[in-house]
Amino acid sequence: MKKLLHVIASPRGEKSRTLQVASAFLERFRELHPEWMIDEINLFTDPLPVLAARQVDGKYMLLGGKELYGELRETWEDIEQHIARFKGADAYLISTPMWNFNVPYVLKQYIDILVQPRYLFQYVHGHTEGLLKGRPMVVISSRGGDYTTPETQSFDHVESYLRVVFGFVGITAIEFIKVEPLDGVSAEAVRHTVEAARGAAREAAARIPA
Ligand SMILES: Cc1cc2nc3c(=O)[nH]c(=O)nc-3n(C[C@H](O)[C@H](O)[C@H](O)COP(=O)(O)O)c2cc1C
User: Fold this and answer.
1) 100 lines ligand 1 (CB under 6 A)
2) Any transmembrane segments, and where (predicted)?
């Protein structure tokens, strides 16, 4: 069975404008692909492993071409489960607001857990190669400000960061739906912007190959 993994990086549940747009994507996606399983990870409520001294030791073992063994392997069990869940997906939906010009810290933590040598990338003749090639991703990102002008575009590290890090593991077909500006504007403007983004999200759902 094919699987879409929905990664939620807003803590605001029903109040989240990002998730209001994501729900339009998911409704359309379910209509078009009733046979797909939709897995959902909420990074603010599902516990994430830390990446502290012992876990990082494991990363350097792998980078050095060694196997994990004994206690280190046990320490890595949670990390491996998250990696397996992520790798088990055929397509991805990431719902993330902008926080301080980048993604919320839990999404950064999740990415630091996932991006591991031999699991998501490997070295080939001294170069790195992503292991998740060909999987589509849609990123829905809402933000308070407007990052569409020439003066503000470079402040948007959400898109630049996610393109680089997921591109590194082979996910290069990434479509962004940006929902902006949402703060400091009228309630009517918010409604209008969210509604337009919901339309774009439905169209993006239809572009995910069966
Ligand atoms: C901790 C925090 C940091 C934020 N930083 C930014 C920012 O750098 N730029 C911006 O335009 N909006 C920023 N915002 C506003 C949110 O991006 C905006 O309200 C967004 O719609 C929230 O998404 P949500 O409703 O899905 O939670 C921030 C909000 C919070 C809570």
Assistant:
1) yes
2) none
Looking at the chain, the number of H-run helices and the number of E-run strands are: 7, 7
Residues constituting the chain: 210
CA 166 to chain CA centroid, nearest Å: 8
The class that CATH gives domain 3-206 is alpha beta
- CA of 98 relative to ligand 1 center, distance in Å: 5
Closest to 159 (Cα-Cα) out of 93, 98, 113, 201: 98
Expressed in angstroms and rounded, the spacing between residue 95 Cα and the centre of ligand 1 is: 13
What integer pLDDT is reported at residue 111 of this predicted model?
98
Does residue 155 line the site of ligand 1, with CB under 6 A? no
> Could you report the per-residue pLDDT of 117-144, keeping only the tens digit for each?
999 999 999 899 999 999 999 999 999 9
Asked if residue 170 has its Cβ within 6 Å of ligand 1, the reply is: no
Domain regions of the chain by residue span: 3-206
Sheet holding 91-95, edge to edge: 37-42, 3-8, 91-95, 137-142, 174-179
For the chain, helix, strand, coil in percent to 5 are 45, 20, 35
Beta carbon of 145 within 6 Å of any ligand 1 atom: yes
Nearest CA to ligand 1 atom 15: 144
